[in-house]
Amino acid sequence: MPTERTSAGDPARTLALLWRDGAAPPSRGPARGLDLDAVVASATELADREGLDSVTMRRLAGHLGVAPMTLYTYVPGKAELVDLMLDAAYGRLPRADTSGRPWRERLGAVAAENHTLYQAHPWAAAVSTLRPPLGPGLMAKYEHELCALDGLGLTDIEMDDALTLVLSFAQASARAAGDARATQRDSAMDDQEWWAANAPLLARVMDQEAYPLATRVGTDAGTAHGSANDPDHAYLFGLERLLDGLAALIDTRD
User: Fold this and answer.
1) Which end of the chain is more exposed for a tag (fewer CB within 10 A), N or C?
2) Are 136 and 87 in contact (CB under 8 A)?
């Protein structure tokens, strides 16, 4: 389950910070030797390296070499900071120009761009965005991604639904890949080593004749992927099936 969610702070303060509206230095308080962008960049660097849980106001202050109370002259707390971090990541996301390309290529590029985002910032995949950070980075990303669905005969609601489906798939795939990396790191062995250690134990206790399909399919899949689960294969396979499903809707509008 996600441990952080966007739009969890004071909405008025958050929107002002996201759009840099009224973010001028206060007339009283500690002298400010940083700017908000530097604070967000430092927090992102820390999250990329050690995970979002490592980003506390005290830890970030130490990372920046300032007193903890100084940070509060830039951002009210971690809830607002998470919104700023994610929106900044959205704003830096490379956006391919796929205009004029078939719609499957355009949507595939959208999924790939988000896949790249989560590889660069694994913590972002674990943040719940049901109430998204409504900043300039998100709005530019949303505008760009909707272009992949424009002109296909879909209603506005269907365009938003289709994009939500693609983005949710990309985020879920990234979480699965992150879980796989964390499992290998924490267990100090890769999947092949884990199966080599556990397969003999399973064979001793499980009656294969009682589970013929599970035995056959599991063996074939494990042999093909070198693991019970290959996140990269699952992403590519799932994306194609997802696009097949959208084709059933889009083709009716041609």
Assistant:
1) N
2) yes
Q: Which of 64, 61, 63 is nearest to 72 (CA)?
A: 61
Exposure string of 154-177, with b = 16+ CB inside 10 Å and e = fewer, is: beeebbeebbeebbebbbebbbbb
pLDDT of residue 203: 83
pTM, 2 dp: 0.88
Q: Across-strand partners of 4?
A: 127
Report the amino acid identity of residue 14: T
What are the backbone dihedrals phi and psi of residue 128, each rounded to the nearest 5 degrees, phi first? -75, 125
Q: How far apart are CA 31 and CA 25, in angstroms?
A: 9
Q: Which long-range contacts (CB under 8 A, 24 or more apart) does 242-247 make?
A: 242/165, 242/166, 242/169, 243/104, 243/107, 243/108, 246/107, 246/162, 246/165, 247/104
Give dist(CA 102, CA 152) in Å, integer.
10
Find out whether 235 and 177 touch, Cβ atoms under 8 Å: yes
Structural tokens at position 183: 């499992």
Mean pLDDT of 72-84: 96
For 99-108, what is each residue's pLDDT tens digit?
Answer: 999 999 999 9
Q: Which amino acid is at 51?
A: G
Q: Are 141 and 103 in contact (CB under 8 A)?
A: no
Return d(Cα 28, Cα 185) in angstroms, integer. Answer: 47
Least confident of 8-12, 53-57, 164-168, 189-193: 189-193
